[in-house]
Design a protein that fits this description.
Blueprint lengths: L9 H20 L4 E5 L2 H9 L2 H4 L4 E5 L4 H4 L2 H12 L3 E5 L12 H6 L4 E4 L3 H9 L5 E7 L1 H4 L2 H11 L4 E8 L1 H9 L8 E4 L2 H6 L15 E3 L4 H16 L5 E3 L11 H10 E8 L3 E10 L8 H5 L14 H6 L22 H4 L4 H9 L1
Parallel strand pairs: 1-2, 1-7, 3-4, 3-5, 5-6, 7-8, 8-9
Antiparallel strand pairs: 6-11, 10-11
The structure holds iron/sulfur cluster.
The site of iron/sulfur cluster (SF4) has 14 residues, from helix 15 and helix 16.
């Protein structure tokens, strides 16, 4: 289907919504309620911003998943970064992480007490800071999914090339497919399909979702971020469910290839290896993260500084772990919009610009 007026054409949206209603009615006639999980924080924001959740038929439920890298990073990681800062390191981080609560304080609070914590917008800024503070240890908070991870090998390449010895990465890279597997096999969850991420899929490719489809699987549709992208993906999912099919569809094929970005994958394979990783809400998932290969351990902050990232203490009363798994909606949290708001966030899902609680707060109240 081609939309010459772009991806916000109201008439085209109306037609797709009508089709969604027909498909939803067919599913309803056979007693089916459908849960579609969006596995990307940017989708969560777009769905809230364009009001898509509210226009869907009542038997179609969009639930938010673990798509925000800041949200899935446990408090113990923040604690480790704070301990390094207190020991005199320069901590370099992307913006959202600075306000996420650790067990006792956030990086912002630590900075207010004099620690050197720098917010950057690109990993290459960590190199600049390492050059700027040659007498200090500079630790980059290397958090993110496959999209954010892809540029990291270049940082190590530059540091190696220039002989920079005072830069290390505190890695908490996460891989999306192992999280999908954990969600699909969780007996407490009933997920009928995945609306698959756009940016991550540009790296790993649409074919990466094939293991979640087939006879025992669910429909997986890769979608872009415009309203028509998301509506077409929902239409594709419902079409598959009506036909009792479960395959991968790539609605975002203007960006995502079946095989993904092979160059980025090769570079990541050269420097990084799969490791077990802890996720807020999902716990320890085997081989669900990426860590530096042994030959690059001089850039590994944990090894270099002799520290171990522990689990940490989650904020009291916060349901972020349940929200991340799609077990609770943000509005089910007793603190939502009461004790917890973007200005006084209790948990990471309200802090992060991609967090489910922040999306609901910004667009649903
Ligand atoms: S509303 Fe706040 S306290 Fe509740 S789950 Fe969301 S971030 Fe946590």
């Amino acid at each position: 289907m081609k939309y010459i007026d772009g991806f916000r054409n109201p008439l085209a949206a109306k037609k797709i919504i009508e089709r969604i209603e027909v498909l939803a009615n067919l599913l309803k006639a056979s007693g089916r309620k459908v849960s579609i999980m969006e596995v990307c924080g940017t989708h969560t924001m777009a769905i809230a911003r364009f009001g898509i959740r509210n226009i869907l038929p009542e038997n179609i439920d969009l639930i938010s998943g673990p798509g925000c890298p800041v949200c899935v990073t446990e408090a113990g990681y923040i604690d480790a970064a704070i301990n390094l800062a207190k020991a005199g390191a320069v901590i370099v981080t992307f913006g959202d992480m600075i306000n996420v609560p650790g067990s006792d304080e956030s990086l912002a609070q630590c900075r207010a007490n004099g620690a050197l914590i720098e917010v950057v917008y690109s990993p290459s800024a960590a190199i600049k800071l390492a050059r700027q503070f040659p007498e200090k240890n500079v630790v980059f908070l290397a958090v993110g999914f496959e999209t954010t991870t892809a540029p990291m090998p270049a940082v190590i390449q530059i540091a190696e090339g220039e002989g920079i010895r005072n830069l290390s990465l505190l890695t908490a890279f996460k891989l999306v497919p192992p999280a999908l597997k954990a969600l699909m096999t969780d007996p407490e969850l009933k997920i009928d399909s995945f609306l698959c991420p756009a940016h991550v899929s540009a790296i790993i490719g649409a074919d990466a979702y094939k293991p979640f489809t087939g006879k025992e699987g669910v429909p997986c549709v890769v979608a872009g971020f415009e309203p028509l992208d998301i509506l077409m993906a929902i239409d594709g999912i419902l079409n598959q469910l009506v036909r009792n099919e479960a395959s991968v569809e790539n609605q975002y094929n203007r960006v995502v290839k079946p095989e993904g970005n092979l160059k980025a994958q090769a570079l990541m394979d050269e420097y990084l290896q799969p490791v077990d990783a802890r996720w807020r809400g999902l716990g320890l998932l085997p081989l669900s993260g990426l860590g530096l290969k042994n030959e690059f351990e001089r850039f590994d902050a944990e090894k270099k500084h002799g520290i171990t990232v522990k689990k940490g203490k989650e904020p009291s009363g916060c349901l972020c772990g349940e929200v991340i798994k799609g077990k609770s909606k943000p509005t089910s949290c007793p603190l939502f919009a009461r004790g917890c708001t973007p200005d006084h966030a209790v948990g990471p899902c309200m802090v992060s610009s991609e967090g489910s609680c922040a999306a609901y707060y910004k667009y649903s109240l």
